[in-house]
Amino acid sequence: MTEQTDPVTRIAELVERARICMLTTMTLDGRHVARPMAVQDVEFDGDLWFFASSDSAKVAEIMANRQVNVSFSNDKASEWTSIAGTAEVVEDRQKAEELWSAPLKTWFPDGLDTPELVLLKVRAETAEYWDAPSSKVAQVFGAARALISKDPDKFPADNETVDLRGKTTNP
């Protein structure tokens, strides 16, 4: 666990270490659906960027309901992060060029010239994270200490909810 005074920096560290996430949207008939997505390699400043196909279900769902959740899990380090925010579909060739990486050709064989290629921008509003010691021994001892003392705060983990509105570098 790392002590940080800046919550955006703390969230950025957790996002960078996890890299793969689950993007949850609401279907047109009101059900939540999550799918794995790769976060594009850009420093987290309150925004998350993804590539998508304009004719995909997730794009249609975002067009109907912009509220999304993005969850990250880094089991090796016992870190979990959940980011709630507002998504938008962005058609910006310059931004796509900035974010593009070779592995994306798997999903977009024509690269940046793929006709349906769009970006999804998620502006983070709130984030909650859980960060426990990666040592399983420390977790077991911490859990035992919390159980014996009947004080869940004795478990050696950080859990914080962070309001990111107004804390990002983007207006």
How would you characterize this protein structure?
This protein has 4 helices and 7 strands, in the order αβββαββαβαβ. The two termini are 30 Å apart. The chain has helices at residues 7-18, 57-64, 93-99, 136-149; strands spanning 20-26, 32-38, 47-53, 67-74, 79-90, 117-131, 158-163. A hairpin with a 5-residue loop joins strand 1 (20-26) and strand 2 (32-38). The chain has one domain (7-163): Electron Transport, Fmn-binding Protein, Chain A (Pnp Oxidase, Chain A). Strands 1, 2, 3, 4, 5, 6 and 7 form a 7-stranded antiparallel beta sheet that branches. The chain is of the alpha+beta class and 171 residues long.
- Portion in beta strands: 35-45%
* Rg for CA atoms: 18 Å
- pLDDT average, as an integer? 81
Residue runs with pLDDT of under 50 for 5 or more positions: 134-147
Q: What's the domain count? A: 1
Determine and state the CATH class: Mainly Beta
- Percent of residues in helical segments? 10-25%
Order of helices and strands: HEEEHEEHEHE
Count of DSSP helices? 4
What coarse outline follows from CA principal-axis ratios? globular
Task: Output the keywords.
alpha+beta; 24% helix; 171 residues; 4 helices; Pnp Oxidase, Chain A; seven-stranded antiparallel beta sheet
Provide a concise account of the structure shown:
The protein is of the alpha+beta class and 171 residues long. The chain has one domain: Roll (Pnp Oxidase, Chain A).
SSE topology:
Elements: H1 7-18, E1 20-26, E2 32-38, E3 47-53, H2 57-64, E4 67-74, E5 79-90, H3 93-99, E6 117-131, H4 136-149, E7 158-163
Antiparallel strand pairs: 1-2, 1-4, 3-6, 4-5, 5-6, 6-7
